[in-house]
Amino acid sequence: MEKESVMSERVGENLEKDVKNVEDMEAITCKENKMRDIICSGLQEQMAEIRQDVLELVNNRMNVMVSEILQIVNKMALTESRDLVDSETYNNRTKSTRQDTLPTKQFLQRNSLLTDLYEIKHIRTIYNVILSTLIVLLIHTAVYDIRNTGSPNFAINTVKAGFAKISVVLCVWLLMKSAALANYVAFCYWATNRLELLPKSFARKVWDYSWLVVLILYQLLYIVLPAKAVVDHDLPIASSMIVLMEQLRLIMKTHAFIRSVAPRFLSYKPHSEAPVPKPPDFSKYLYFMFAPTLIYQDSYPRSKRIRWNVVLANFAEVVTIVFFVGFIYERLLYPIYRDFGKEPIELGMLILNILSSMLPGILMFVCGFYCLLHCWMNAFAELLRFADKMFYKDWWTSISYSTYYRTWNIVVHDWLYTYIYKDMYEIITPGNRKLAVCTVFAISAIFHEYILCLSVRFFYPIMLVLFGVVGFTVVFVLKRAGNVFLWFSLSCGSGTLVSLYCIEYFARINCPPYREDFMDYVIPRTLTCIFHREVV
């Protein structure tokens, strides 16, 4: 019995141990399950955080990409509309402070547009290609002259003939410049003595109107006398253009000076707190007479020094372009028209001549622009340290003639805008823009024809018709014609202009005059030559 009890006790103890072991194992298993759950939940949280970080990174990257694409699209849109909206660098107008007034001219320190474009290697390459083509043309001309005449000509005879009698040109220029400087003395005399007269008195009115008559007579004589000198001395075409263009330049400058300074004295009231006006110093007037601008101000932005390499480079380009135009005339125009008037004229031949003149015509037009408005103006701006060199804008990208007329010659356009258009719109016919535009076109067309008419010594109003009628009509009819149409029409207009003027010029050499009076300068010799041949 004792043994059985002992055995039963041992069995009971073993069972208790086994139960404890089982309970310990279950506890360990539960702990392991809890650890596994903790690890799994931690991994899930980390995966969620990683997923959130990846989504945020992708979202930010997508936002950056979309922003960059929008910026590129905006830049493309601004580039396409550059001919419609002026950039800050090349904006030549200040904002008007009143609703009934127009913006005024502002002068800034800036380069010419082509000067800045030449800093781009692609544009510079185009310039180098043109220069290389010119060198090839020069070599071809030299070889051609040596083969036919035994010595190279380089268009020297043509240039010498065009610029003959340069001593007469210099004398006329000195007289015109002296008369322009005398204008300053007369203005100062009028202004200082006017202040001594009582306001609103009869004496002051007589004084003002008397000097207004003197000014009108002065301007008329300034137009007539140089033109008479050109005709009397029979100056050739290039020399005539120098005198006539300088004549108009000085007329525009004297008008600008009087129109800008005279209101200071006309609006002065003795009993007001405003200081007594004084005429500008003579040095300011003298600087304005030579400065490459037609808008008068007492001061302009000035550069710090003269870059002589820029001056010499621009003058060298002027000489090169003059001879290049001589090459164009000798090789592409003179052989076609030199015998005109010796043989009967056919309509088909006339049309063919006009088509053949389109290339040399547009080349001469571009050369004239580059020679005068870029090289010549930049050379004198550098000599006078005149910092505002914006003499033109990117007219070659224009898609309408209204934009082209406003951008191809900023110097003259600023004068027409400031002293014709602005005065018409604000003072003479307030608010009437169409009449102001018509007046600007009429004045510009008349003086373009005036220079050409006196230079060639006959009235053949092709320029007046093309510029004042066709150009004026295109501005109002074709608002957005396109850049291809602009260049095509410029080529057609230049070809027609060059062809018809060359025909009339050589007709007057080869055909006898129909009349011996003044009407011979007005009646086209082309028509009288045809009529004479039909009669014969």
Explain what you see:
- The protein has 536 residues and is mainly α.
- Helices cover 73% and strands 0% of the residues.
- The longest helix has 79 residues, at 2-80.
- The chain is extended and about 150 Å long.
- Residues 76-86 have low confidence and may be disordered.
Summarize the topology:
Layout: H1 2-80, H2 113-117, H3 121-149, H4 156-162, H5 166-194, H6 202-232, H7 237-266, H8 282-290, H9 308-337, H10 347-356, H11 358-383, H12 401-407, H13 410-428, H14 433-456, H15 462-477, H16 483-510, H17 525-535
Q: Which class do the helix and strand fractions yield? A: mainly alpha
Average of the residue pLDDT scores: 82
The percent of residues in helical segments reads: over 70%
Strand coverage percent: under 5%
Taking Cα atoms only, what radius of gyration do you get, to the nearest Å? 40 Å
* Secondary-structure element string: HHHHHHHHHHHHHHHHH
Largest sheet: none
What is the number of strand segments? Answer: 0
End-to-end gap:
175 Å
- Estimate the global geometry from the Cα principal axes: extended
Number of separate helices: 17
| Poorly predicted runs of 5 or more residues | 76-86
Assembly state of the chains shown: single chain
Short description:
This protein is 73% helix and 0% strand.
Name the features:
536 residues, mainly alpha, 17 helices, 0% strand, extended
